[in-house]
């Protein structure tokens, strides 16, 4: 598509700072200097109006990966033309603080009126004539200000973001992004901020945010789609925050420059958000037809998962439910809505891990595999939890977006010594699974942040981890089970089913709750000679029932579904009782 010249669309796409300057001129003509503080919100509204009309228009904005692949890992230099780019990323570090900048810059041309105001927002100072002599944007200390010039100062928030860890190719393509491919060169000091450094094509970049209403909504592991002006900058240090300038070492070493995105606007994305290519208008389709379609799609998806699970339908059923789970609320410290799964007794299915990794990569937005081999757990370069030295937050492999699938291979764990790093890694993993909290280690303290990963553990025996459901697999040993390649239409339907099940809500009426309670009490009394049922069993069955109903496209729970879930849970119990005692993982 040819971009018409002299339109807001072309100016925003090709000369974003010129459009922002015109917005500043309009604001300045309507009031005093205080009105300039409204420029970030005004610019965000203007650029959103231009690009959110259609995904085709938005796709015309080049991705950060495309620009860096073409122009180099540092991004733009002061001598280059400012570029508008877009980037879907995960916030890795929000602790870089704020820095001061000049809201307006002095005119650089003799013909400009003395009272003209040049915008200093969105990295404009990095591309001004005075910046071209600097070896690093933001690296030249600002000249001393006169007392009446302090009103020209404003704050912007700095954060560090990375490519979405573990994102699958289909999900990136569904958002009009190229899938992770060629690894862009990342400085050694910044590799520690990549949760999965070296495993897939990853980018790390600074975000500089001028609108507090945007920065205040961003937290660690949030996935956001940002649009902004690309420049380059050294990594902020404590010296920068105290003096307003980068350290002399950063300024003199151009290799330390990082891509820096001056954010104009952003959108939050979760892993239950339907990408544009999966959205279907069903408003004209009768509800009965929709229900029949979903039942057929679900039946086909379970059959597909069953083949991946070596022919075991029960494991396939629970696998689907585990993929659709998400934390919906927290009551008395207990996460409601989550469902972690242990596929145990997997010695009879040696190809299960590879099969699951392949299949889940075709169905889920993000999949991360983690081995529990002792050499992996004890490796200090692959710690699972984030940690800070007081100035820089080092990423951990569990620092992942909510809704990511964590596929754990416990079968690789053998005998040996679990060292300090290994012990802390296991403790962090158990916290993520049992409490839905990821610990962040700091020099003199530890803080926990919310986590919500879809955890699936494959083990030889029953896992030592605190999981919700344990299902011994019964592989079809005498049948050659093959995972057939599904059609594109089937994959689209299954992905949509999983994501819509995650985002949908379920109502359990008081009448239904009373019936469930009555049946459970009766079952508890009738459990003669069997393991006594307790409150934990009821809570687990309720969690399974909610996910079972949602995966069928239902908005409420009925007795037929409840009894089906009870049957599934009882079959799991029978299989667990048949496992040899003390079977190692």
TrEMBL record:
- Which UniProt key words apply to this protein? Nucleus
| Highest taxon, organism lineage | Eukaryota
**Which GO terms are recorded in the biological process aspect for this UniProt protein?**
DNA-templated DNA replication
Q: Where is it found, in Gene Ontology cellular component terms?
A: nucleus
One annotated GO molecular function: chromatin binding
- Indicate yes or no for the key word Nucleus: yes
Principal subcellular localisation of the protein: nucleus
This chain's source organism reads Tilletiaria anomala (strain ATCC 24038 / CBS 436.72 / UBC 951)
Q: Where in the cell is it found?
A: Nucleus
**Protein name per Swiss-Prot or TrEMBL:** Mini-chromosome maintenance complex-binding protein
């Amino acid at each position: 598509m040819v971009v018409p010249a002299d339109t807001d669309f072309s100016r925003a796409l090709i000369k974003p700072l010129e459009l922002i300057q015109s917005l500043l001129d309009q604001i300045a003509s309507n009031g005093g200097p205080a009105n300039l503080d409204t420029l970030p919100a005004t610019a965000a509204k203007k650029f959103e109006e231009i690009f959110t009309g259609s995904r085709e228009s938005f796709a015309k904005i080049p991705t950060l990966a495309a620009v860096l692949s073409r122009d180099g890992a540092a991004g733009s230099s002061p001598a280059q033309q400012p570029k508008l780019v877009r980037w879907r990323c995960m916030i890795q570090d929000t602790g870089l603080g704020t820095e001061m900048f000049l809201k307006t810059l002095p005119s650089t041309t003799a013909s400009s009126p003395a009272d003209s105001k040049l915008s200093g927002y969105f990295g404009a100072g990095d591309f001004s004539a005075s910046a071209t002599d600097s070896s690093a944007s933001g690296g030249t200390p600002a000249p001393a200000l006169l007392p009446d010039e302090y009103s020209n100062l404003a704050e912007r928030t700095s954060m560090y973001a990375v490519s979405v860890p573990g994102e699958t190719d289909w999900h990136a393509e569904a958002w009009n992004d190229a899938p992770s491919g060629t690894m862009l060169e990342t400085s050694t000091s910044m590799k520690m901020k990549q949760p999965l450094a070296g495993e897939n094509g990853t980018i790390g970049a600074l975000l500089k945010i001028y609108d507090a209403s945007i920065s205040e909504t961003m937290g660690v592991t949030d996935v956001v789609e940002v649009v902004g002006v690309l420049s380059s900058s050294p990594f902020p240090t404590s010296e920068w925050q105290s003096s307003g300038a980068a350290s002399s070492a950063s300024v003199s070493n151009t290799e330390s420059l990082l891509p820096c995105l001056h954010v104009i606007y952003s959108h939050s994305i979760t892993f239950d958000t339907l990408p544009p290519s999966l959205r279907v208008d069903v408003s004209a389709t009768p509800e009965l037809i929709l229900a029949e379609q979903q039942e057929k799609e679900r039946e086909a998806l379970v059959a597909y998962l069953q083949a991946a699970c070596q022919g075991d339908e029960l494991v396939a059923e629970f696998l689907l439910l585990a993929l659709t789970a998400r934390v919906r609320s927290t009551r008395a410290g207990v996460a409601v809505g989550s469902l972690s799964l242990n596929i145990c007794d997997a010695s009879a299915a040696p190809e299960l891990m590879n099969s699951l990794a392949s299949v889940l990569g075709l169905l889920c937005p993000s999949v991360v595999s983690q081995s529990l081999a002792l050499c992996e757990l004890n490796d200090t370069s692959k710690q699972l939890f984030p940690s800070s030295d007081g100035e820089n937050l080092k990423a951990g492999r569990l620092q992942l977006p909510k809704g990511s699938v964590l596929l754990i291979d416990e079968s690789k764990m053998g005998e040996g010594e679990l060292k300090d790093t290994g012990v802390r890694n296991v403790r962090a993993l158990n916290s993520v699974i049992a409490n839905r909290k990821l610990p962040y280690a700091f020099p003199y303290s530890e803080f926990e942040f919310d986590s919500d990963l879809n955890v699936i553990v494959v083990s030889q025996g029953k896992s030592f981890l605190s999981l919700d459901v344990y299902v011994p697999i019964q592989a079809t040993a005498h049948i050659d089970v093959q995972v057939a390649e599904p059609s594109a239409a089937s994959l689209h339907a299954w992905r949509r089913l999983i994501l819509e099940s995650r985002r949908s809500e379920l109502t359990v009426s008081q009448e239904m709750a009373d019936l469930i309670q009555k049946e459970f009490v009766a079952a508890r009394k009738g459990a003669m000679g069997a393991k006594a049922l307790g409150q934990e069993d009821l809570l687990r069955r309720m969690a399974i029932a909610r996910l079972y109903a949602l995966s069928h496209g239902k908005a409420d729970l009925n007795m037929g579904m409840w009894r089906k879930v009870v049957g599934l849970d009882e079959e799991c119990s029978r299989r667990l009782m048949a496992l040899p005692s003390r079977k190692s993982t």
